[in-house]
Amino acid sequence: MIELFAPPAVGGAIAFTMLFAKEASLSFESAVLLAALSILYGYAFAFLPSCVYVLLMEWAFSSGLRKRSAGAVLLSVFLGAISGAVIGYCFESRLARQAGIYSAIGAATGLVVGVVVAFAGEDKKPSVGHSGTQ
């Protein structure tokens, strides 16, 4: 569940932080509104890429990738960067200039989610086969 619902919220929070840093003169009320809109923006535009992310991560885990591995975090960063580029491509007309920003937000989101999954997730224990005794 973390892999599905965390990326849009984390990406929205990162986007908010970037916007807030750019507009540091915002009032508290405006900052709260901007934070809420940033997270809603994240869910509106990143939910579908998050679903693809979950499918690919779960496929990797079922293929033997350990949740608590650097490889899982790196895969999460890579998928996040790709998701960010896709979001930038679909929703921005200035792709050449914005693709790097969206990919960076996606990679940072993938890093945060990958680390959270690594620490919160448990690797599946190998199933014990039938011992052959009856």
Number of domains: 1
**How many angstroms separate the termini?**
40 Å
Radius of gyration: 18 Å
What is the percentage of strand-forming residues?
under 5%
Q: What's the SSE pattern? A: HHHH
Written description of the protein model:
The protein has helices at 2-22, 28-62, 70-91, 95-120. With 134 residues, it is mostly helical. It has one domain.
What order do the helices and strands come in, and which of them pair?
Elements: H1 2-22, H2 28-62, H3 70-91, H4 95-120
Based on the model shown, name its key terms:
mainly alpha, 4 helices, 134 residues, 78% helix
Gist of the model:
With 134 residues, this protein is mainly α. It is 78% helix and 0% strand.
